Amino acid sequence: MGYSPRMAAQNRSPFTVPPASILVVSLGACLAAFAGPGAAHAQDGATTAKPSGDPAPSGTAGTGTAAPGAATAKALMPTDAEAITAGVARIVAMQEKGPGADIAAEWPYEGVYRVGGKIPYGYRVGGTSIASMALLAAPGFADDASRKDAVSRAIDFVARSKDEPLLSPEYGGNYDVRGWAHCYGLRFLLAAKKANAVSDAQKPAVDAAIAFYLDALKKTEIPQVGGWQYARGPGIENPCPTSPFMTAPCLMALVEAKEAGLAVSDELIARTAKALELTRGESGYVAYNAQKQARDDAKQIPGAIGRMCAVEVALARAGKGDEKRLRFAVEKFLEFWPELEKRRKKSGTHVAPYGVAPYYFFYAFTHAAAAIELLPEAERAALRTNFREILFKVRDADGTWNDRVFPRSASFGTAMSVLALLEAGGARAENAAR
Fold first, then answer.
1. Least confident of 40-44, 166-170, 400-404, 421-425
2. What pLDDT score was predicted for residue 424?
3. Alpha helices by DSSP H, 30-144
């Protein structure tokens, strides 16, 4: 289908860990990229309903107003190095114990959805994986004992989670978020191995978990259509619309697995790319779902900017890039990001007129940063400057980023933002090294 290692090397994923030698100053879903909307399948018999909105927790104002200090953000804007260092420290500090655990090993993503009253396993593994990927990618990992210990604990958690029944690829369909664990669990463990963060004692469990997560993606691919979806109908054996929100990072996971030497067929990558292409409109718009070629709807572009960037980045990673569409996605992100800002830290999910939910926010930012780095070098500096000013406008006073009303989800927002900053930094370091 046109995949080549050379193309893959030129088109980095927004979550690819660059080589240590070039990691100067360079995070999601969804779990939104992992942070997608959704619900875990209630296999324990608990009744789980699709949420109508996110109630603000006690003591939290779900107002969606600008982050503390946003008015002076530009004047007090830190360097990328300062922001990444602060973000990494905050992520490490936010690691927590899971239910019944004695050791802090998780960064669960928190949305409104619950299974049996608990955060779904897909969000626990997905959130932990994204936070860990940011810690791995940020400069200085090899010399940071606290970060290495935190990631090592996360590796153990994500590896053993393959045995969790609620992550089984054999389930009845319907609204379910286990796919975020399959996608980001795979991406994290691949990145950990690439960064030499897996100990000899951990390697057998990690290799088994990588095999499990990759196999789970293969088994849950949408029949006849391709791609993945967290809001399926009954029965995963039945065709349903593909979700570009979910399928884009899954395609990146497949490309990364293939680059690592795992058994990923060109045919699977081609089917996944074709599924994403179904969601594209002629104008550059990307539909929320598609089972056949999507109808163009340019009026809805303000609500589609995150998935537009994600789809174009994923296709570029798979050797199917389109510079014109990449540029359009970035331009529309910079133009319409205030439509996402209206929904940041607010209750509710798909609110009119654009169907924007809070969890699109940092998912969109991370993929926009990646999209910028795929454009010609002469265009990037100005785009990076504009992007960076926006990102720091929404940074909280404590050095974190959060798009939800739940304080816990600052680990996800901060990780996605750190990875976004590393995109441009990694590219600058690569250019300097040439």
1. 40-44
2. 84
3. 80-94, 121-137
Q: Where are the domains of the chain?
A: 5-433
Contact 113, 40 (CB under 8 A): yes
- Between the CA of residue 283 and those of 225, 248, 326, what are the distances in Å? 22, 19, 12
Token output for 271: 């089917």
* 57 pLDDT higher than 80: no
3-state DSSP assignment of residue 173: strand
Range name among 35-44, 84-93, 178-187, 366-375 with the lowest pLDDT average:
35-44
Q: At what angle do helices 178-194 and 121-137 cross, to 10 degrees?
A: 20
Range 57-62, long-range pairs (CB < 8 A, 24+ positions): 57/405, 57/406, 57/407, 60/405, 60/406, 60/407, 62/345, 62/346, 62/347, 62/405
Alpha-carbon gap, residue 72 to 392, rounded angstroms: 10
Q: Where are the alpha helices (DSSP H) in 260-373?
A: 266-278, 301-317, 323-341, 361-372
CA 190 to chain centre: 15
Architecture of domain 5-433: Alpha/alpha barrel (1.50)
pTM above 0.90, yes or no: no
Task: Note the maximum CA span of the chain.
Answer: 58
pLDDT tens digits, 290-311? 999 999 999 999 999 999 999 9
Which segments of 138-202 does DSSP mark as H helices, in order? 145-160, 178-194
